């Protein structure tokens, strides 16, 4: 038994799944699944991060995402897909979104960030999730499309409200608390 984080790579292209696994194996235990059914069969409480393709045989990655969230697990899930994000992602429960093709550095950095986020409060994790959706949309849509979309405007309002809550929460911490949080994050980032 190891204390290394476990990553589940869900990718229907076996060669690509194997490549992602090879990139991550040095620092992580890696499992691969090539279909939605395999992903759900392999998912358990040992999984720390899921890298999930949106296009899978038999079922979509979106459906797998919904099922994983229904388990109540706080696993970090990143969509890694050739599907450009659209406004439909706003309601999805992922923590990050990468558009293929991805480099080794992008993938390993993403996994590191997701593992570090496990240390954060629920509010901070929610903020990162919403911010990831906003960033994904802003890289794919022009300003007029964003300005005209009500769902996007609600997303921005939710982010701003959460920022206010987080500012208030942060103001309640003393200097020792803040220093402890940063030491914890720095220590986790060095792993």
TrEMBL record:
Modified positions (4-aspartylphosphate) are: 53
| UniProt name for this protein | DNA-binding protein
Q: Output the SUPFAM superfamilies linked to this UniProt entry.
A: CheY-like
Which GO terms of the cellular component aspect does the record hold?
cytosol; protein-DNA complex
What is the phylogenetic placement of the source species in the record?
Archaea, Methanobacteriati, Methanobacteriota, Stenosarchaea group, Halobacteria
Q: Please state every residue range assigned to the domain named Response regulatory.
A: 6-115
Q: Which domain of life is it from?
A: Archaea
In terms of PANTHER family, this protein maps to: REGULATOR OF RPOS, TWO-COMPONENT RESPONSE REGULATOR ORR33
A molecular function annotated in GO for this UniProt entry is:
phosphorelay response regulator activity
Which keywords label this protein? DNA-binding, Phosphoprotein, Transcription, Transcription regulation, Two-component regulatory system
Concerning Pfam families, the annotation shows: HalX (PF08663), Response_reg (PF00072)
User: What Gene3D superfamilies does the record point to?
Assistant: 3.40.50.2300
User: Is Cell membrane included in the keywords of this UniProt record?
Assistant: no
A single GO BP? regulation of DNA-templated transcription
Task: Check the record and name the InterPro entries matching this protein.
Answer: CheY-like_superfamily, HalX_domain, Sig_transdc_resp-reg_receiver, WalR-like
């Amino acid at each position: 038994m190891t204390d290394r984080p476990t990553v589940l790579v869900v990718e229907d292209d076996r060669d690509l799944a194997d490549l992602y696994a090879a990139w991550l194996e040095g620092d992580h235990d890696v499992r691969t699944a090539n279909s939605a059914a395999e992903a759900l069969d392999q998912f358990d409480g040992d999984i720390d991060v899921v890298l999930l393709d949106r296009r899978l045989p038999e079922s979509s990655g979106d459906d797998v995402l919904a099922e994983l969230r229904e388990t109540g697990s706080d696993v970090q899930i990143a969509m890694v897909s050739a599907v450009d994000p659209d406004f439909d992602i706003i309601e999805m429960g992922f923590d990050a979104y990468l558009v293929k093709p991805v480099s080794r550095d992008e993938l390993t950095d993403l996994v590191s960030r997701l593992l570090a986020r496990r240390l954060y409060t629920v509010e901070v994790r929610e903020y990162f999730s919403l911010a990831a959706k906003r960033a994904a949309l802003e890289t794919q849509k022009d300003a007029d499309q964003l300005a005209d979309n009500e769902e996007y405007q609600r997303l921005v309002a939710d982010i701003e409200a959460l920022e206010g809550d987080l500012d208030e929460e942060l103001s309640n911490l003393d200097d020792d608390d803040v220093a402890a949080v940063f030491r914890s994050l720095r220590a986790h980032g060095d792993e």
